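Quick illustration, no need to memorize.
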Amino acid sequence: MTGKRARFIVWSKAKSPEDQAEFDAWYDTHLDLICEPEGVLGASRWKVGEVQLPGQQVDPAYSVVIYDIEDPETTIPRMMAHRRESNPAADPHSIKAVVVERTASYVKGKGYDT
C-alpha cells in the first residue's frame, strides 16, 4: 500500500445517558464494518478523561474514535461506502470528524523524528 498515513478522528456522544448502552453497542459492530476497506489499518475508541487542563470546559459524554488510515484521498471514500446507517443513539449535532496528517514526531530523549 502506498500513500501518506493519516488519522481520521470522529467525536460524538449519545443523545442521553439512557442511550449510552445502545450507542456503545452500535460501535461494537460498526468498527468491524468500517475497518474492512483496504487502507483502514485499525481503530481505537476513547472517552473524555476525568482530568483536564485547568479552565477547560469539556463535555465528559463525548466519545472519540481514531482510525489509522493509509492515503486519505482513497481510503475515506472506501470507508464511506462501507458505512451503514448512522448510530440511532447518537446526538446528530455532536458528530464532528477531521483527518489529520502527521508532520513530525517527538521521541523523548531523542528529539524529532520527521
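The first strand starts at residue 6 and ends at 12.
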